[in-house]
Amino acid sequence: MIPEPVSLILRPTPLHRLDRLSAELGVDLWIKRDDLTGFAMGGNKGRKLEYLLSQALALGANTIVTCGSAQSNFVRQLGAACAVFGIRCAAAVMALPFEDYRPTEHALSAYGGNETLDRIFGVDLYLYEDGTWEELYARADDLARTLEAEGRHVYQIPIGGSSPLGAYAFTRAAIEIQAQQDSFDWIVTASSSGSTQTGLAWSYHQTSTRVLGVACDPEPEIVEDFARLGYDLDHLLGTQKNLGPELFEMDFRFVGPGYGVPSAEGDGAIEKLAKTEGILLDPIYSGKAFACLLQRVKDRAIDGRVLFWHTGGTPALFARS
Fold it and tell me: How confident is the model at residue 248 (pLDDT cuts 50, 70, 90)?
């Protein structure tokens, strides 16, 4: 069942053409400004939270538990949403969660940036020693059980809000685009926990629009997670699109040193957009995604009318080590 969403963001977020870059690159380049949601310094997570908070409230939750990196954009926006409704927000975080490879240099600081905003919004941050993603998820599960044992009514949200409801929010975002502008040949977005890309890929399945996710995690198997999320979205909506892993178009070349670590290409893309169009990107997600877009245009692997989905995240610019 899909709950009636609570109201958090200002919509529709702006969608406009990047005139100078379009002329320079030779493509018809547009940008979707989810950095301008008007909520908690912006970001795509606000769309998901309108449905997730609605469900939490309907279930009578007085505490929400999630997890992420210490510079998580989702934790920041979740904290603000919980503040709006008087709900306690608790987050298990690590400075730099990792999988097989652990980058040690040039990572973002665990402090400042989003972490500063988390504390302003009243998030209870539980900072653990760096470990694998599975260890972080286990920390969140333990935290939820501890708070439940204290008598709290806990609603647990997976990392990044990547649940069927989170993906559903981006099927609605696709409808928002269609009301703003004619169709696009490409939609390019940063992709990590997956619900943004899954919702968009589900919406544009078997259309002329190709959705490209630029991976911010160096694990090719994440498309398996996206496929499971797509199947769950089918179940939620009573559809049978059956998006298998092979239907999620991904580019893994721009992860850089690893998750949560800025890259030279991403930093270059941040400066390019800032100095050409006056728009800021972030070093972990949108900067890397825009670097991919620029390279693909240069290689003539992307052309026509292109939409870059700005997912927000600019507070991370203030957490450079």
Answer: very high
208 included as an active-site residue: no
Q: What is the mean pLDDT of residues 209-235?
A: 96
Catalytic residue among 7, 54, 69, 72: 72
Which amino acid is located at 18 in the chain? L
292 and 231 in one domain? yes
| CA–CA distance, 244 with 302 (Å, rounded to integer) | 23
Beta-carbon-side half-sphere exposure of residue 306 (alpha carbons within 13 Å): 25
Same domain? For 38 and 61 the reply is: no
Q: Which two tokens stand for residue 315?
A: 């507070």
Q: Give the separation between CA 42 and CA 33, rounded to whole angstroms.
A: 9
The widest CA-to-CA distance across the chain, in whole angstroms, is 60
Beta-ladder partners of 68 = 93
With b meaning 16 or more CB within 10 Å and e meaning fewer, what string describes 220-249? Answer: eebbebbbebbbbbbebeeeebebebebbe
On the 0-12 / 13-18 / 19+ scale of CB atoms within 10 A, 75 is buried
Q: Do both 175 and 298 map to the same domain?
A: yes
- The confidence band for 91, taking pLDDT boundaries of 50, 70 and 90, is very high
Domain count, the chain: 2
Q: How far is CA 209 from CA 49, 65, 244, in A?
A: 26, 36, 17
Distance CA 5, CA 235 (A): 19
Q: What is the pLDDT of residues 121-165, one digit of tens each?
A: 999 999 999 999 999 999 999 999 999 999 999 999 999 999 999
Same domain, 147 and 250: no
Domain of residue 168, CATH code: 3.40.50.1100
pTM to 2 decimal places: 0.96
Among the candidates 114, 144, 161, a domain finishes at 161
